[in-house]
Amino acid sequence: MSLHYLPAVKPSAIALGTIFNHTAELAVLSPLFGTAWQRAKVSSTKEEFARSREAAGAAVAWGTALVGSALQAYGVGALINATGTLSYRGAAYLGGLIFAATSAPSFLGQWLVEKRAWEQVGLNVLAKLVETVGLSLVLTWWGTRTNPFEHSGIGGTPLSRSPFRSE
């Protein structure tokens, strides 16, 4: 596979989306970091804390959340570019579709099958809505196209210009 098949997304949009998403993700991971902070206060030395299970878990969670945030920012930016989304309304719809496709089924399972508390599921839903709908709105506001004059609406969206269609 060649990299030119992947849609181009402005690097500053990926960076902004990563920061936005990582901040939202850290809000969800804050109980894990709270446990690590408590362990750090109890530890007698820095080395003892660095070798602790809490520190390792917090570092892994932070690193994977950062990489996941960057990948999600690129993916949403690429979808915005590929669909030719130019309005906030379109971005909100796109973010809602991403949420429905990726997160809604697991939340329904948590609530109906696992019988988790509605408050817990509701907070997780809110965090994922920020990560999907919020991210798509922020990226639309910032701009994701490397060439802003590309896909200006003349001739349809990029998806309507398929090499397999005869025009």
From TrEMBL:
Keyword tags: Membrane, Transmembrane, Transmembrane helix
Xref: InterPro entries: DUF1761
Chain segments annotated as transmembrane: 12-34, 55-80, 92-113, 125-143
Name by which UniProt lists this protein: Uncharacterized protein
Lineage, uppermost ranks: Eukaryota, Fungi, Dikarya, Ascomycota, Pezizomycotina
